[in-house]
Each structure stands twice: as structure tokens, then as C-alpha cells.
């Protein structure tokens, strides 16, 4: 009997509270605001020494990189939106969001939807201070969208389209619809040795090493920072 | 480029690794840092208060004083710091702009001192963040008004060299400027009053002759009133014509409200003069006399308050409209209800719904004349509801109108709203221009870079060199990045303008071009062919076409064509631009003659034709191992 009474009282208080809220007009739940407080937590990277060990940058370079990183992302991590926004500042004429998305996936090694400073610096270390093979590996990783070890024509077409999108509309000669796919054909002719329709990592590295233009352009990254 | 992300430029350049393996063409050379400075702290001493920041922070905005080499003028060798003899409080906001990318306007600061500091440090005020921009603009407007008021007091002194017409116009608009204007002002005012009083007195019954009923004065003293009327109308006509003559923009004057009132005031008289004898239209003539009362509106030139009232009514048009609409709705509803309620009672005045309108209006506005009264009980109930709701409906919009009037009367900002709109447009335009500045900067520097290349190769050391502004390292790195993208995709960035022109002319060309020889030169003339407008200041040479066989020689002059071994699109950009230009022009000028005249032994590439268009271009050797072939222009 007492259980029944307790339940009745609980129901009554609930009904009473509902009518009170109805009359006074508070329709929104107040608890939602509490949730927002928790999400502005800060993420701190590991210590400078640890990063020095993991990457090939000097202390000063790491400091400069971190200051720039923290300035743009005070919370310590970059999410995809911010990433796309930052990248689009450099390409005012075209649409760089797709390519930025691929880049984000390549940097986000832990696949948790955000790029922390460690991920950022690790990626940069390979590109800017790694050996040519490392760089080629990284580029392959970028192209291989589903990370299965080989680049299919579809993956390459996606990447190519994203690069062409960055050019925008106002180009000379004007952008044809077939330009990306022609370029992909070209690429596969060059890279796909055994003509099996996919490019594996070995084929990729081998073909790149044979191409003088590519080897030369890889050297460009030596003095970016 | 938003300098807040300048720190991410190395990342963007690193991300270009994705383009390298797919590019078919070699990448351009990267710009080198001439004096590679490590990031260091610099000290800015502003009137004794020392601010310290990284050098990179200041470098983010290279077109300001602190970001450019202009700050070297303020460098003090002994103390190794930059000294500025300016206000340190305002400098805080300015330095924060470099740090955060957002410029804030502190409210306690005087607007003119803030503006001066911004001008000194080379920062445009348009980039003030949205949080502070409204405040900034309001203060600026107040300040400008204050200055204007001061100026207007000074403006009353006579300006030299004003034409007679301008003097007259000023006299009309500001009666206080000269005594003649004042006299004119009072005379017209007097005559307006006289005219209005005449109209009124005309209808008053004057003393009557014993055997007749009361006769209005107008009919008794017809001649006197007619003379008075004529005199007033003559004065008004003269005034109107003088104003029309003196107005700076006659069309605008004629469209203004005051001039329309003037015209309406004097027209009935003239119309009356014309048709006095016609009996049929005398009724219409009488109606026209009603319009004479509009002369009273001419007083609004003399009274500021009247003008403001008129402006208020105009600006509260929506509230007035709402009032009218809601009243109409209520009237119709209640009239219908009252009609049906009173239908039963005998000898009721509510004979139809429109007849009930009168009752409803009188009741809702709480006038209650009492000429129509409901007799049934239902009628009385609905009648009381009607009067109660009338009070509500009318009471609601009226305070809005009243508050509007008081606001406008106190502020009197008739023209400010128009000015504010123009300023907002200007601000957005300036921000848009600075944003497109980045893409334009790249295109600019491309042309400059080419110019330099070409001039280097010709060995010319003229003044054209100095057109190339030294871009900051950041900018040159950014441009190098965009250049790499161009090479990867084998397309170039182009101005929007030119792109549209190209597409238009390309579409046109598809119809007129019939030259088979040209079409054989591959996909070069395929798409947008006309690059007529894309003429560089230095006449760079025409390009090579397909890497095909050399073209035949002809007599006459002036078109040098390069034959390059590389694929066409990789030659100097200039060549690309001018080649289709040539081709296009050839097409236009003589479509059908091309094949016949050019007797080229080898299969025809381009058929350079057309008259001597433009000055002969200087030949420039762009690539080693390309042969220069002369082909004539017919």
C-alpha cells in the first residue's frame, strides 16, 4: 500500500510540475545548457621533449608550429570543419573542401574525427623531413582512400576531381568535364605496371622513382619550413 | 590571404605532396628566403609603454605599417627597439588586431583619435569586427553630423563666385541668408494666409438685402474677391516660376511634393479662367475650387513641424495601414452582426449592411452620435461588445505612431537613413575588394613574373622592371603554391572577367570559324579562343602551335612564331594567350581565304593572316632549342 502511495505522489508531483511549467511558459529543458559546458574541454599535447623524439623537427620549429596551431584552434584539436575552413583560405578561387577532407583523413591517423597536434606534427614531419620514400609512402596513403593497400581507378578519380575542383571555374583553358578522368588514365598508364587496374604501393614507388619530374618535385619540400 | 592563417602556410605547402605524383609537368622553383630569420621577439616602445611580440605576428599583415619595412624608420639603434610616439591605449587595440586577427573599437575612446591612430598604422577601419562595428559607425555618424552642423553655420557667409541662379536657390531654401530672401519669405507667407482666409470668408453669409435670404459674401462682393484671388494666384505663379528657374535640377524639383502642392494650388484658377462660360461644367468648376484649400499646405515650407508630421505619417505608413485594415475588418463584422440582430425590429434604421457601417464606425470610435440606436436586446449586447472592441483596436496602433513622431521630431534624421545605406554598401564593397585582392594579387604577380622573365631574356633593363613590386615572402610562397596547382592540373587561373569574355567569344567563334587549317592545329583553338583583351603591357611573342612541322615562309612582316619542343600548354603562358588571339583574329578577318593564299609546303599549322594588327611584337627566346620562324601577315 505504501508503495502505491509513493508512486501516486510521484505521479502527482510530475503532473503538478508539468502544469506549472505549462502556465509559466518554461517549455525548454534546462539540462541542455549543462551539457554544453562540458564540451569546451582543452586538449593538451604531450611534452616538447616527447615530440622532439617522435619527429624530426627542431625545438624552435616545433614551437613555431604549435603557436600557429594553437592560435587557430585554441581548444587544441582541429575538427574537419575548421580544417576545411583553414585550407580554403589558401584557394580563394576554387572549392578545396573535398581535397581537405582527404587530407584530414590522411592526418587523422587515429581515426577519431579530430587532428591533434601530435597527429599534425607527425604528418608534417614525414612530408617535410622524411626521406623520399617516406614521402611517397605518405602520398600513397593519401590516395588510398579505404586504406586497403592499393589505389583503384575510382579512388584516383575522386582524388583527381578534388584537385581539379580547387582550380575553380575560371581557368584557362576552360575546364572540361573529362579533364580529371583523362588525367587518371594517364596516371594509370604510367603507374600500373602489370595492368591489373590497381596501383599497389610497390608499383607506385617504383614508377615514381623512375620519373624524374616527380623526384625533383619531392625535393621541393625540403625547405618549406 | 587571411593573415590569421599565415602560420598554416607551411602546412598548406606540405599538403601539396598529394599533387606531385599525379602531375605530368615539372613544378616551378620555390621562392627562397633571402635572409632566413629565426622567429624573434621585437620590442615596441609606444610612448614609454613597452609591448613585445613575435616578429611573425606583425608579419601577418604586410600592408600595414608594423608589418612592412616602414617600421624600420622608427627603429632605435641604441635601445634596439621600435619607438612610436603615439597613444599607448589605442595601440593595445591595434596590437591585438595582429594577434587575434580581429580589430575592436573600445567604447571609451574618442572616435577621431582612434581614426587617426588607425590611419597612422595603415589599418583600414572597415575590418573592425562585427561586434564593434555598429558602435563605431554610430559614433562616426554623430561626429560627422556635429561637424556638419558647425559647417552649416559657417556656410551662411556668402560664398564667392556663386551664379545668380545659385544665389536665388539658396535664398529660397534658407530665408535667413539675406534680407531679400527674408522679405520674400514673409510676403509669400502673408499671401498664403490671405488666400486661405479669403476662401473661408467667401462662404460666410454677409449682410443681406431685406427681401433676399442670406447671401454669402462671395456672391455679394464678387469683383473684390476675384481681384484678391487673382493677386494671390499671380504671386504664387511668379514664386513657382522663380523656384523652377533657380532649381539646380529642374526635373527633380518638379517631382518634389512641395512643387506639386504649388501646382495644385494655382491650377484651379487657370482652369476656371478658361472655362467660365460653359454652363455644363460649372459643377465641375465648383469642385475645382475645393482644391484651393491646398494652398494651406504651402505653409509647410514655413514650418519645420509640419514637415516632420508629414514625414512621420509617411514613415508610419505600415502602422497606419494596419490600423485601417483592422478597423475595416471589425467594421464589417460588427455591421453584419448588427444588421441581422436588428432585422427583426420594426422601423429600425439598420436597413442594410452598408447602412450599419455608419453605426459601427461611430460606436467603435466612441463618438456615439445617437442617430442610429439598436432596439433589440441582441442588438444592444452586440452594440456594447462593438464599442468595447473599438476602444481596443484603435488604442493599439496609436501609441506606435505617437512614439514614432516624437522620435523623429527629436532626431530629425531624414537623410541619415539614406546615408547609412550607402555607407553599408561601401563597407561591404571594400571588404569584398580586399578579399578578391588575394586572387587578383596572384594573377597580378603572374603577369609581373612573366614580364620579368621576358625582360630578363631580352636583356632589357628599362623601367618596366620596377613595376614588379616586391612581394613579401609569405605572398611569394602562397603564389608558388597556386602555381604548383596550375602545373598539376595543366590549367591556369584566370580573371573572372576574362573568363566570361572568353566564353562569350568562344561561343561566337564556334559559328564563324570555318578554317580547316586552323582546326588541324589540335586542341589549341578548341575552347575559348579569343584572348583579345588579355594583352600584356609588353608585347610578348606569339606562341608556337602544335609541335608540328615548321610553317612556310612568306614575304611581308612581322609575325614571329616560336616552335617549341615541349607540349603547347607548357610554354610560357604569354604564348598561350596570344596564339589563339592571333588565330581568332585571323578567323574573323578572312575566314574563307586562309587555305588558298598560304601556300605552305608542309601541312599547314596556323595560317597567320589578317592585316597588320598592332605593332610588331618583339621576338623573345623563351626556350633554348626552339627555332624562330617568320611567317608573314597578309
From TrEMBL, chain A:
Gene Ontology cellular component list: voltage-gated potassium channel complex
GO biological processes: regulation of potassium ion transmembrane transport
SMART domains: EFh
Keywords: Calcium, Cell membrane, Ion channel, Ion transport, Membrane, Metal-binding, Potassium, Potassium channel, Potassium transport, Repeat, Transport, Voltage-gated channel
SUPFAM superfamilies assigned to the protein according to its UniProt record, in alphabetical order: EF-hand
InterPro entries: EF-hand-dom_pair, EF_Hand_1_Ca_BS, EF_hand_dom, Recoverin
Residues in EF-hand domain copies: 95-130, 131-166, 179-214
Pfam assignment, any one: EF-hand_8
GO molecular function: calcium ion binding; potassium channel activity; potassium channel regulator activity
Keyword flag Repeat: yes
Protein's cellular compartments: Cell membrane
Lineage top rank: taxon: Eukaryota
Main localization category: membrane
Protein family (similarity comment): Belongs to the recoverin family.
Stated name of the protein: Potassium voltage-gated channel interacting protein 2
The species this protein was found in: Scleropages formosus
Amino acid at each position: 500500500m505504501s508503495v502505491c502511495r509513493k508512486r501516486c505522489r510521484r505521479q502527482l508531483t510530475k503532473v503538478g510540475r508539468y502544469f506549472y511549467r505549462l502556465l509559466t511558459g518554461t517549455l525548454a529543458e534546462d539540462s541542455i545548457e549543462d551539457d554544453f559546458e562540458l564540451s569546451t574541454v582543452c586538449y593538451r599535447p604531450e611534452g616538447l621533449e616527447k615530440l622532439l623524439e617522435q619527429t624530426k623537427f627542431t625545438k624552435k620549429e616545433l614551437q613555431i608550429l604549435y603557436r600557429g596551431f594553437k592560435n587557430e584552434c585554441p581548444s587544441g584539436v582541429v575538427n574537419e570543419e575548421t580544417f576545411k575552413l583553414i585550407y580554403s583560405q589558401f584557394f580563394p578561387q576554387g572549392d578545396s573542401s573535398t581535397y581537405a577532407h582527404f587530407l584530414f583523413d590522411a592526418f587523422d591517423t587515429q581515426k577519431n574525427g579530430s587532428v591533434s597536434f601530435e597527429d599534425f606534427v607527425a604528418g608534417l614531419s614525414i612530408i617535410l623531413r622524411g626521406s623520399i620514400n617516406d614521402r611517397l609512402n605518405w602520398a600513397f596513403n593519401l590516395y588510398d582512400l579505404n586504406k586497403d593497400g592499393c589505389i583503384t581507378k575510382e579512388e584516383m578519380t575522386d582524388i583527381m576531381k578534388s584537385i581539379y575542383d580547387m582550380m575553380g571555374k575560371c581557368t584557362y583553358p576552360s575546364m572540361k568535364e573529362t579533364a580529371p578522368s583523362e588525367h587518371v588514365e594517364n596516371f594509370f598508364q604510367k603507374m600500373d605496371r602489370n595492368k591489373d587496374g590497381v596501383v599497389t604501393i610497390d608499383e607506385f614507388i617504383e614508377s615514381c622513382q623512375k620519373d624524374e619530374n616527380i623526384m625533383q618535385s619531392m625535393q621541393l619540400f625540403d625547405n618549406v619550413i | 590571404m587571411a593573415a590569421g592563417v599565415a602560420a598554416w602556410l607551411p602546412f598548406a605547402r606540405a599538403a601539396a605532396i598529394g599533387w606531385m605524383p599525379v602531375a605530368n609537368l615539372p613544378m616551378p622553383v620555390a621562392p627562397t628566403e633571402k635572409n632566413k630569420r629565426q622567429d624573434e621577439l621585437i620590442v615596441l616602445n609606444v610612448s614609454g609603454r613597452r609591448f613585445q611580440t613575435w616578429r611573425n605576428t606583425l608579419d601577418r599583415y604586410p600592408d600595414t605599417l608594423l608589418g612592412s619595412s616602414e617600421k624600420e624608420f622608427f627603429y632605435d639603434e641604441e635601445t634596439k627597439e621600435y619607438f612610436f610616439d603615439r597613444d599607448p591605449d589605442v595601440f593595445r587595440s591595434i596590437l591585438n588586431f595582429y594577434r587575434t586577427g580581429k580589430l575592436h573599437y573600445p567604447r571609451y575612446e574618442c572616435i577621431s583619435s582612434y581614426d587617426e591612430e588607425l590611419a597612422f598604422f595603415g589599418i583600414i577601419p572597415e575590418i573592425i569586427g562585427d561586434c564593434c562595428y555598429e558602435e563605431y559607425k554610430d559614433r562616426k555618424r554623430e561626429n560627422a553630423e556635429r561637424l556638419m552642423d558647425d559647417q552649416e553655420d559657417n556656410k551662411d557667409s556668402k560664398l564667392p563666385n556663386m551664379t545668380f541662379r545659385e544665389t536665388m536657390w539658396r535664398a529660397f531654401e534658407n530665408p535667413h541668408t539675406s534680407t531679400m530672401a527674408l522679405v520674400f519669405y514673409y510676403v509669400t507667407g502673408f499671401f498664403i494666409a490671405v488666400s486661405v482666409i479669403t476662401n473661408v470668408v467667401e462662404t460666410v453669409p454677409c449682410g443681406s438685402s431685406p427681401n433676399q435670404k442670406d447671401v454669402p459674401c462671395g456672391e455679394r462682393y464678387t469683383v473684390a474677391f476675384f481681384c484678391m484671388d487673382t493677386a494671390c494666384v499671380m504671386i504664387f505663379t511668379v514664386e513657382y516660376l522663380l523656384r523652377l528657374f533657380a532649381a539646380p535640377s529642374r526635373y527633380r524639383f518638379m517631382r518634389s511634393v512641395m512643387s506639386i502642392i504649388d501646382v495644385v494650388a494655382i491650377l484651379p484658377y487657370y482652369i476656371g479662367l478658361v472655362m467660365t462660360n460653359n454652363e455644363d461644367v460649372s459643377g465641375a468648376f465648383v469642385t475645382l475650387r475645393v482644391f484651393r484649400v491646398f494652398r494651406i499646405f504651402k505653409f509647410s515650407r514655413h514650418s519645420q513641424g509640419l514637415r516632420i508630421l508629414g514625414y512621420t505619417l509617411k514613415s508610419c505608413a505600415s502602422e497606419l495601414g494596419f490600423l485601417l485594415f483592422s478597423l475595416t475588418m471589425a467594421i464589417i463584422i460588427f455591421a453584419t452582426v448588427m444588421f441581422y440582430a436588428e432585422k427583426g425590429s420594426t422601423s429600425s434604421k439598420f436597413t442594410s449592411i452598408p447602412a450599419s457601417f455608419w453605426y459601427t464606425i461611430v460606436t467603435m470610435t466612441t463618438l456615439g452620435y445617437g442617430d442610429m440606436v439598436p432596439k433589440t436586446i441582441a442588438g444592444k449586447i452586440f452594440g456594447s461588445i462593438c464599442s468595447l472592441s473599438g476602444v481596443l483596436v484603435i488604442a493599439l496602433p496609436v501609441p506606435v505612431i505617437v512614439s514614432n513622431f516624437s522620435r523623429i521630431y527629436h532626431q530629425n534624421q531624414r537623410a541619415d537613413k539614406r546615408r547609412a545605406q550607402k555607407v553599408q554598401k561601401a563597407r561591404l564593397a571594400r571588404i569584398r575588394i580586399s578579399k578578391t585582392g588575394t586572387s587578383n594579387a596572384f594573377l597580378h604577380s603572374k603577369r609581373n613574373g612573366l614580364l620579368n622573365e621576358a625582360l630578363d631574356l631580352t636583356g632589357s633593363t628599362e623601367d618596366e622592371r620596377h613595376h614588379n613590386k616586391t612581394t613579401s615572402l609569405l605572398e611569394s610562397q602562397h603564389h608558388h603554391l597556386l602555381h604548383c596547382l596550375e602545373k598539376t592540373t595543366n590549367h591556369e587561373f584566370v580573371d573572372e572577367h576574362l573568363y566570361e569574355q572568353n566564353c562569350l567569344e568562344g561561343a561566337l567563334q564556334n559559328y564563324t570559324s570555318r578554317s580547316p587549317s586552323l582546326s588541324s592545329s589540335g586542341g589549341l583553338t578548341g575552347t575559348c579562343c579569343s584572348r583579345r583583351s588579355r594583352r600584356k603591357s609588353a608585347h610578348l611573342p606569339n606562341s608556337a602551335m602544335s609541335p608540328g612541322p615548321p610553317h612556310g615562309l612568306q614575304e611581308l612582316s612581322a609575325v614571329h612564331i616560336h616552335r617549341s619542343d615541349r607540349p603547347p600548354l607548357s610554354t610560357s603562358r604569354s604564348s598561350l594567350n596570344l596564339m589563339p588571339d592571333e588565330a581568332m583574329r585571323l578567323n574573323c578577318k578572312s575566314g574563307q581565304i586562309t587555305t588558298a593564299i598560304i601556300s605552305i609546303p608542309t601541312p599547314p599549322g596556323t595560317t597567320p593572316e589578317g592585316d597588320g594588327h598592332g605593332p610588331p611584337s618583339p621576338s623573345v627566346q623563351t626556350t633554348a632549342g626552339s627555332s624562330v620562324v617568320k611567317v608573314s601577315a597578309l
